[in-house]
# Entry
Amino acid sequence: MGRKIILLFLTLVLGAHLMPGTASGLDYPTREIELISGYPPGSSTDHVARLAAKFAEKYVGKPIIVVNKPGGGGSRGFASLAASKPDGYTIGIVSQSAVLQPYLMKGVTFHYKKSFKIISQVCFTAEGVYVKKGGPWDRPFKEIVNQAKEKPNTIRAGVGGTWTASDVVRAILEDETGAKFIRVPHPAGGQELIPAVLGGHLQFAIGEGSHWAPLYEAGKFNVLAISTERRDPRFPKIPTLKEMGYDIAMAVTFWVGAPAGTPDAIINFLAEAFRKGVAEEGYREGSDKAGNNAVWSGPAESMKTMERYDEMFQKLVKRHDLKPE
# Structure
């Protein structure tokens, strides 16, 4: 009888450690988790944050609350995440802007390797060059580029903040072609860019698929080109910049990260929760509707992707002698 009681006790103890909603060997989580979005409510990054939180929190076992900390093209959010206590109760959306900004922005206090532990990738999207459908700038993009070469600084190009992914695409495009656009940063991203394009205040904008996909499908925008290596199977008529002869191939990638020093057990627990959330059909449908591609990768693979971006950005900075602004 004593042996049976001991076995039963061990079974209950081991079972408790493996129950959903707890990190193995840790009393975690015991309260809600904050997820920082470095852009305002309604922005594309905010949409990613809220969708990922919604589908992961049931596997976490506690609410995941999105906290918006906009400013500096996402840098305020990244800095806040980096400075947070590494206890698993503050996480945040991290994009390749967190890799690039230390090279190009003064006063940056974070570094993607030293300041963060990446939990997982949750989606990616293409940067697209979009215009008002049927408007005066709804024409082949090469014509716009050629005009910007012949008459530099006469065409207003909207981007989602200084040295965000869309601004990088704009910079590479200018360097590749010799064109010069009037760079018009909009820190709130699509929330500002969309009405500016529709109202004729911008000739075109460069932005994430979550900006333009719904309005492209509704017939209000035309997308002249996208930045990914290959055409998006959801939008097969949109050519890539690479097809046009421009050496640009970059997707906007969204990860969930935590402050450096967060225990690996917590990172792995959260990575599994986000993996399950991303795998749900509702998450994929929500991502697709917003113009994003639902894709998950774990901590190690995600860091390798960030390192590839870092190599690309270092070459960009060196080749064009870019300095922090």
